[in-house]
Structure formats: C-alpha cells, structure tokens
Amino acid sequence: MPLLRFDVIEGRDEKSLQLLLDTAHQAMVEAFGVPERDRYQIVHQHPANELIIQDAGLGFQRTKDMVIISMTSKARTESQKEKLYALLAERLEKKCEISPDDLMVSITENGDADWSFGLGEAQFLNGKL
C-alpha cells in the first residue's frame, strides 16, 4: 500500500517513465514484501528550473536524469528501508540508466487510520485489508 510520488525533470518519453515505475515497483515488492497489485504511483514532471536537488555536501553529481521518490507508507523496519534504497539504486541504474547520484528517496510513515482506498472506509481499520 505504499504510495509513491516520482518527481522528475520533464522530457522523458512514456516508455522510459513506465520502465522507471515498473522497476521501482519491483524493488518495493521485494524490499517490503507487499503484494504485486499493491501499486499506487504518481508522476510529476517539472521544468528543469523548478527542480533543485543539491547534494547536501556529499559530492553527488546530479544531472537532468534525477529522480526524487517520495513514499508514504505504513511503518517499515530500518533494514527494509535500507534494502529498498539499495535495490532502487542498483536496478534503476541497470534498467533505466539512472545514476545512483541522481536518486533521492524520502519515506513518510503513517498508520492504519490514515488510509482509505475508496467507499469512504478505512479498510485497514474495518478488517477489509
């Protein structure tokens, strides 16, 4: 049930975006053990001047290929998060040719009462999920 938002610089073609989304989803399924159909993704494309991501003094060489993944999720362990970060960096580089320097991930955690998948219900609270 994690909700992933991808912020990228505009200009990627549909095939590249789909590969990015598919690759990130597979990494999340493996790292978090969520069901394959537990997929919620949103892409935001920005003009280059509207996306400023520096390196926090870590020496990253950012390019126009940078991707920011913001995730909202129920609580995950530190080891699950570290596995996700590593899988994303490895697989996005291999499959999408996105350098690990161009990847930033942020996870915000929430609880069962913070989700409604429709019908005005909190499915985690009412036992439907």
Describe it for me?
It is built from three helices and four strands, in the order E-H-E-E-H-E-H. It is an alpha/beta fold and 129 residues long. The chain has a single domain, classed as Macrophage Migration Inhibitory Factor (2-Layer Sandwich). It starts with a strand and ends with a helix. The model has no long low-confidence stretch (mean pLDDT 97).
Structural features:
Macrophage Migration Inhibitory Factor
What is the structure about, briefly put?
This protein is an alpha/beta fold.
Poorly predicted parts: none
Cα(first) to Cα(last) distance is 10 Å
CA-based shape:
globular
Please state how the strands of the largest beta sheet are arranged side by side: 2-1-3-4
Structural class, from secondary structure content? Answer: alpha/beta
Number of strands: 4
Instruction: Please state the CA-atom Rg, rounded to the nearest Å.
Output: 15 Å
Largest pleated sheet = 4 strands, mixed
| Name given to the CATH architecture | 2-Layer Sandwich
Share in β-strands: 15-25%
Question: Looking at CATH, which topology would you report?
Answer: Macrophage Migration Inhibitory Factor
EC number: 5.3.2.-
Pfam families: Tautomerase_2 (PF14552)
GO molecular function: isomerase activity
InterPro entries: Tauto_MSAD (IPR037479), Tautomerase/MIF_sf (IPR014347)
